[in-house]
Design goal:
14% strand, 12 strands, 4-stranded parallel sheet
Length: 362
């Protein structure tokens, strides 16, 4: 398993859960080979195109005894999406065994020229003849990958993780000093694609008893300065006293933050898949999110997500659920039901089926 590992990263946590699930089946021996700028930085290594080629060559040598290699792919782990910069084709070409790639991120953002360059580079990456099988985390992503590559693509949706613990709602609110408030929660690394600036704009029109908790710090690989710009935007906003930046929230503190929230808000601009939404569902939380294809799929399957199309629509939806607790209760019930059915074990079985198919040469 080639992936981000044991660093503050959503893919690292996804990989940990998947590996734990796969290891329950004793006939499979799994070795995790950590890659990516965060991993190399934690090891005291510096990044850079040629240095990363060296690190990946070392990783390739460690796959020599494997029957199969499974790569958890995000562009940043292999050099980004500048033309010919990404090293995934280099890596899979050097491996001597069948390779499966899970594509966690498809990037279609930017100007027309930038988008065209990104699409061209991603087509180059995923068409590599050395990739035997592609896994997508949503049907929309699977459709894009299939049209780009002509390869067989298996869709294995993100699962709802096991809830580690629960917390008392009133006690959690007392700890966070937000009693008698309607609490919105933004959860996950604070990056521009999450659209929190549009949420801040909407917050200005909400009643004074509506507060926003931003649970997550800047992503370690983000160099855009978005987190700092967002803090400055809040400081200049009329709602500055109703927005609380909590920073990175540990697993130990997460139950408290989730218990305190009425609704999780996710005004994404772009998204391929979001483990943060699955975590919210694991705590039975209703979600208000942007109407994007992967989120639309999740909304249809879970019935626990309200979709919005604009800042005005977001503001109106928040007001609606704030005033109608029956809607909140319905969404909470659906989130709890989805948690019970969309499990890690189901995803593990789907992965095992892919592995067996590849090893048979299907």
């Amino acid at each position: 398993m080639v992936a981000s590992w044991q660093v503050p990263c959503g893919i690292a946590e996804y990989t940990r859960q998947l590996v734990d699930g796969l290891r329950r089946y004793r006939q499979h021996a799994i070795t995790v080979l950590p890659v990516g700028p965060q991993v190399w930085r934690s090891q005291g290594l510096t990044s850079g195109f040629f240095r990363e080629r060296v690190y990946l060559r070392r990783t390739v040598r460690l796959t020599s005894s494997a029957d199969l290699v499974h790569v958890q792919f995000v562009p940043a782990f292999f050099g980004g999406l500048r033309p010919f910069r990404n090293l995934l084709p280099f890596f899979v070409r050097a491996c001597s065994c069948p390779t499966v790639v899970t594509v966690h991120e498809i990037d279609l953002s930017g100007t027309l020229v930038m988008k065209a360059l990104k699409v061209w580079e991603q087509v180059r990456i995923f068409r590599s003849p050395f990739i035997r099988h592609l896994i997508a985390t949503s049907r929309s992503s699977g459709s894009v990958l299939s049209s780009w590559t002509g390869k067989r693509v298996t869709v294995i949706p993100l699962w709802v993780p096991d809830r580690n613990a629960s917390a008392n709602r009133q006690e959690s609110r007392r700890r966070l000093n937000i009693t008698d408030r309607f609490v919105l929660l933004g959860f996950g690394f604070v990056v521009e694609r999450r659209g929190y600036d549009s949420l801040i704009s909407a917050m200005e029109s909400f009643p004074d008893d509506t507060v926003l908790l931003v649970a997550g710090g800047p992503h370690p690989l983000d160099r855009s300065g978005y987190y700092q710009r967002l803090q400055k935007l809040v400081a200049q906003s009329r709602c500055r006293n109703r927005v609380n930046f909590l920073g990175y929230v540990s697993e130990d503190d997460l139950p408290t933050v989730m218990a305190a929230a009425d609704v999780v808000v996710a005004p994404f601009r772009t998204v391929t898949g979001s483990a943060s939404l699955m975590t919210a569902l694991s705590y039975g939380k209703p979600i208000i999110a942007t109407d994007l294809p992967p989120i639309r799929e999740l909304a249809q399957e879970s019935q626990a997500i309200l979709l919005t199309t604009s800042t005005e629509d977001l503001a109106e939806t928040v007001r609606k659920v704030r005033e109608d607790r029956d809607i909140l209760r319905y969404l909470e019930e659906k989130a709890e039901l989805y948690r019970r059915t969309n499990t890690l074990e189901h995803a593990v079985q789907r992965h095992l089926a892919v592995y067996e198919s590849v090893l048979r040469g299907d």
